[in-house]
Every structure is written in structure tokens, then in C-alpha cells.
Amino acid sequence: MPLTQADIDEERTHFANVIATFQQYAPYALNANNRRRKDIHIIPIEDRELLEQIGYKQRISATDDAILANAEFLNLLTANPEIFGQDLAEEPAEESPDQPESSTRHDPRRGQHSHGSSHSHSVSHPHRGHSHGGGHSHSHDSPQDGLPLTDKGRGGKRRYKPTEHDMEKLRSTLKQLVRDWSEEGKAERDVCYEPIKEALLQHFSDIPQEERGNFRILVPGAGLGRLAWDVANLGFSCQGNEFSHYMLLASFHMLNRTDAVNKHTIYPYVHSFSNLLNREGLLRPIRIPDVLPSGLAPGSDFSLVAGDFEEIYGAEEGDDAESQVGQWDAVLTCFFIDTAKNIVNYLRIIHRILAPGGVWINLGPLLWHWENNTTNDPSIELTLDEVKALARSIGFEISNERTVDTTYTNNAQSMLGYVYHASFWTATKII
Ligand SMILES: C[S@@+](CC[C@H](N)C(=O)[O-])C[C@H]1O[C@@H](n2cnc3c(N)ncnc32)[C@H](O)[C@@H]1O
Fold first, then answer.
1. 250: which residues sit within 8 A by CB, 6+ positions away?
2. Do 408 and 418 contact (CB within 8 A), yes or no?
3. pLDDT in tens, 88-132
4. Which protein residues are within 6 Å of ligand 1, measured from CB?
5. Which residue among 218, 245, 336, 348 is best mutated to probe the pocket of ligand 1, counting the most ligand atoms within 8 A of its Cβ?
6. Distance (Å) from CA 37 to ligand 1 centroid
7. Which residues contact 372 (CB under 8 A, 6 or more apart)?
8. Superfamily for 1-431?
9. Contact 15, 245 (CB under 8 A)
């Protein structure tokens, strides 16, 4: 189905709002921190003096500095928003309705682009459900979430006012950078990505290393792209797919604009003062990236495609979009399948795009992202047994089943840690 003008406008507005969220991170986060400073002045003076002695105020100031350092990094990510084929110098609220569309726009259904990690462009649906990071946050968004609440910026221009939900996504992106691109994230990464890579290597164990590039591996819901990058680094042809603009802005910068190991320093844990043992838990710097993302061997085939998994890979023979049927030798899903509104469709697509004998390797929980959504979207919420039964009915043979205990974007130095008993399996397409 071709994009309608309404789709294009919605996408444009959404992306502009994401950029606005990045741009307003500093005042928003500083303001939240300033509340702590104000509270000190409300309590009795003798209590204040005690707090002064133990360095509480000084910790609040150090948090301001860390927020400003984060903002500096986040500004780099939005420095070239035209990567998605649109120039957002003009805010959409000011846009004339008959303004012509940018000629550089990509059709998401055309998917892949050339060099290194590349991005095409697609409608990104505001996510209104659960998120994996910080497993306790099962809250749902208010009905107005994502709507362009605006105020007047300088010069009287209307400006998007990010919601708490927008900011939470931005803060999660910082933690996701730890998971995928820092030395600190290695422990969590190893627990999640190593079993997947091992199963992949096992499946292709009779293929000489120099021939791995002939095999096409897809990683839907690729997040910041590290698993897909690792798989390309093993020599396979690998494509990640991701639809969140937060993720895409961050992965684009990591993969295409970062020219040195430990180039950036971020402070992902400065947004909550709860469950901290010491200053370190709050203020420790995280250096990224731990490897040079551009350091893939010459001739590697690695791409990142922006857009909705179901739209891009769900195309059938005869659709206008490029058919993906039977085009993939392996599909790797890590903390992804529970993002489905309709898991039947996800599994059907995974099955359909695999070549005969192809393999689907999965690791993750079943935190159904659309459960209790406020947008009247469908949400099919199966048990693990039911997901496996469904996979078998669709034509998979499941093997290598086990449980993997893992955190997800966890602050390793927090007094609180959520552990997922994630399910792992290898499923081979048999019919
Ligand atoms: C829980 S995260 C997991 C990210 C990554 N696989 C990891 O393990 O770090 C799920 C990811 O899937 C993406 N996602 C959700 N639904 C999607 C869809 N329909 N198409 C493409 N990406 C999607 C989200 O934006 C998010 O980045």
C-alpha cells in the first residue's frame, strides 16, 4: 500500500516531535533536578545544614553537570536530522498545508540502502504500551500522549512540548546505549546476544567462514544495532530493522558518525535518585562506543532499515513492495516478539520470509507491549506454551529450548534490579 499524504504528515510531525524532545532534554531534566534543590530550602535550616555536611547539595549540582553533558551528546544526534530524508529546520506547526514534500523521502517499503548502516524512512507508531527497561514501569500513557501540545517559542513560533513519556523514551535511549555500545553493557549483552550468536554459528557450522557472507540474516527490532553488527562482524550478511526514531537517531550516530572508541561520555543514570548505594551509582560516566562501529571488515554487508517490521517484511508475492518471501536464511529476535499486537502475524511473517530450512532464533520475555493499551489497538497475549504451539502450527520445529536469566538496560549499581526469565529457542522452518 503506498503511503498516503496523511501517513506522511503524521510521520513528519512525529519525527519533528522526537527532535523537539531531544532538544528540550536539558531544560526538562534540569528542571526535575532543580525540584530537589528547592526542596532543601523548604525543610528546617538545621536539617539543611546536616545535608550540606554530607554533600547532598553538591551531588545535586554534579547531577546538573551530568545532564548538561548528556544534552551535549544528544545534540550531536539531532545535528543532521535530514538523515531521514527530511529537513526539520521548519517546524511542522508552521508548515503551509500545500508545501511540497521533500524529494529525498524514501519509501519504507523500498527498505534497504547502501553503505554501512543505512536508514530508510517510515511511519513510526507512537508506542503506548509496556517497555522492557525498568520492568516495574507498567504504566500506560495518558490519552493525550504524542499529541502536539504546543507553546510559543521564541519569535512566537509554536513548539512541541514533550511529554513525560517522550522524555522517558529519550532516557531509555541513553540506557540502551550502555547495553549495546559500552564496556559496562558487555555483561548484559553477553547473556542475551551470545546464545543467539552461538546458535547461529551452530546452524551454519558446516559453512566455511569465508562463505558466511552468502547467508542473509535479519534482526527485527534491532534497537541500537549491536546484535546485528556483531552478526555482520562474524561474516554474515546482516540487516537490522527498527522503527523507533529515538533508536534510529542514536544508532545512526553510533554507526555512521563515530570515529573512535570511547569517543563520547554519557551519564545514563542521573535521572533517578532512588535505590542508590553511593554517588557512583548515579554519576558514573559511561564511555561509548566500546568498539569502532565502522571497523567491520572490508566487504562486510551490514545495513539497518528503518520502518515497521510488518510493513516492510510482511509484503507478499504480488504486492507493490519488494517481496521478502523466502529471502532470509535466519531471523534473530531478541526482546522483540512481545512487541507484536498480533503475534500470529509476526510469526507468520518470520516463517514466510525464511528460506526452506531457515532458522529463527529467539530470546526474550513475553511482556506484551500492547497489553491494556489506551488506543484501542488489538493485543494478543499468549503464554509461552501457546507461543510455541503457535510456532509449531505455523511450520517450525523448535529445539534448543531453555531459560536465560537476564536484565535489560539495568543500572548494575542500583539497589533494584529486574531479572527476566527469558525464553530461548532455535526454530527451524520445516514446511
Ligand atoms: C525491547 S527493544 C529490544 C531491542 C534490541 N533487540 C535489544 O535486545 O536490545 C524492542 C525494539 O523493537 C522495536 N520495535 C517494536 N515494534 C517494532 C516494529 N513493528 N517494527 C520495527 N521495530 C519495532 C522497538 O522500537 C525497540 O527498539
1. 77, 173, 176, 177, 224
2. yes
3. 444 443 333 232 222 222 223 233 333 333 333 333 333 445 566
4. 132, 179, 192, 220-223, 241-244, 247, 308-310, 334-336, 339
5. 336
6. 37
7. 129, 140, 379
8. Vaccinia Virus protein VP39 (3.40.50.150)
9. yes
